[in-house]
């Protein structure tokens, strides 16, 4: 169903709670290979359909074309475009696909681990940050999928009729501004969900406190050790989850050493908090972390592997950590970290970092290059 071209545009409004709920639903839809509609543009007057590039089948291109009446393009990040030999200043570009492009070829353009790719005949165009392609990339990142999406523009649907059009085609409509602010809003919705005393090997006086957002998103945990005084700067550590290092004892990173070392250091100091964040692989997710590992095995370093996949070298934000500390009544901290970015992000969220506490452990033959890259290219202080 299409409205008349001269239908009035609705007044610009901030994203509603329902808009953020739609983002969560869209994430699930993309992860199972579904199609999602996105509304974007400076006046929210642009409509497009998207599907995650790594989830498409040979039928997807035709399905998008039938629904929209336009030829889909592949949205990728500047980092992925550079890896393909293109690039430019725009953070997001679109690739015009040659006629008859198969799902395998699209996957290979999007994902360096999907096989060899023929870049001949590919044309890339810069996309505005306010556009549907950029919104599609942000949404796919929230789904922790390779940051590439097949995007097809829907024409001649005025803003006032976009909701009706999407419902008429049984599609979920997502607002670009809700996508943009989703991680910050989700952090603000964290609540203390459960807690229990859990004695640890290096910290017997220990309480685990689980936090869950009311929108049903990712859960995080605070490990409160001893009885820290919130009226004084509290010794804390922000630790991103690492299945391979924390649980399996991987030697490729220093995460397990940092986790156990922080718990012991906090206990020896008399008390503090370790904030354990669900941010596997610098928040690209476990699957993509393993893909990055496979690229490292071929010679890439940690930063290059992430950017070859289309990500930034570090996708983490610390809104959840700041909100958890706020809920624990902690506003001033002594932060155990080698990463200056954590200091800046906490300060921007209203947490005063009064001291950086050095947190370094010996390297091994498997993680020497990893640690050197963190120091030389990511600015970590060792």
Write a brief structural summary.
The protein has about 375 residues and is α/β, with parallel strands linked by helices. The chain is built from 16 helices and 14 strands.
Task: Describe what you observe in this structure.
The protein is of the alpha/beta class. It folds into two domains: 164 residues, DHBP synthase (Alpha-Beta Complex), CATH 3.90.870; 157 residues, Rossmann fold, CATH 3.40.50.10990. The protein contains 16 helices and 14 strands. The strands form two sheets. Strands 5-4-3-6-2-1-7 form a seven-stranded mixed sheet, sandwiched between helices. A seven-stranded mixed sheet has the order 8-9-10-12-11-13-14, sandwiched between helices. Helix 15 links the parallel strand 13 and strand 14. It starts with 16 loop residues before the first helix and ends in a 6-residue tail after the last helix. The N terminus is likely disordered.
């Amino acid at each position: 169903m299409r409205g008349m071209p001269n239908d009035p545009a609705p007044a610009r409004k901030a994203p509603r709670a329902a808009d953020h709920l739609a983002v969560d639903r869209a994430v699930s839809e993309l992860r199972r290979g579904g199609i999602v509609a996105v509304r974007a543009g400076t006046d929210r007057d642009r409509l497009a359909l998207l599907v995650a590039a790594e989830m498409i089948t040979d039928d997807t291109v035709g399905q998008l074309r039938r629904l929209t009446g336009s030829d889909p393009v592949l949205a990728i990040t500047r980092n992925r475009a550079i890896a393909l030999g293109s690039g430019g200043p725009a953070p997001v570009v679109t690739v015009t696909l040659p006629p008859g492009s198969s799902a395998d070829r699209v996957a290979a353009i999007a994902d360096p681990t999907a096989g060899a790719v023929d870049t001949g005949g590919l044309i890339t165009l810069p996309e505005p940050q306010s556009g549907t392609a950029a919104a599609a990339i942000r949404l796919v990142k929230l789904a922790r999928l390779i940051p590439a999406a097949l995007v097809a523009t829907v024409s001649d649907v005025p803003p006032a009729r976009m909701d009706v059009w999407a419902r008429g085609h049984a599609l979920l409509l997502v607002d670009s501004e809700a996508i943009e602010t989703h991680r910050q809003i989700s952090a603000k919705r964290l609540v203390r969900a459960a807690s229990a005393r859990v004695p640890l090997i290096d910290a017997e006086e220990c309480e685990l406190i689980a936090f869950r957002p009311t929108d049903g998103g990712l859960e995080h945990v605070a490990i409160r050790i001893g009885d820290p005084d919130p009226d004084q700067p509290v010794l804390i550590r922000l630790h991103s989850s690492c299945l391979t290092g924390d649980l399996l004892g991987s030697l490729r990173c220093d995460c397990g050493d940092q986790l156990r070392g922080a718990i012991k250091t906090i206990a020896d100091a008399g008390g503090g908090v370790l904030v354990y964040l669900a941010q596997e692989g610098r928040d690209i997710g476990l699957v993509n972390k393993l893909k990055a590992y496979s690229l490292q095995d071929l010679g890439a370093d940690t930063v290059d592997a992430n950017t070859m996949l289309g990500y930034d070298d570090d996708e983490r934000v610390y809104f959840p950590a700041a909100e958890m500390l706020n809920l624990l009544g902690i506003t001033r901290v002594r932060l155990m970290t080698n990463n200056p970015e954590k200091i800046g992000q906490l300060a921007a969220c209203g947490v005063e970092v009064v001291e950086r506490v050095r947190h370094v452990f010996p390297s091994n033959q498997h993680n020497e290059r990893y640690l050197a890259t963190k120091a030389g290219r990511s600015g970590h202080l060792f």
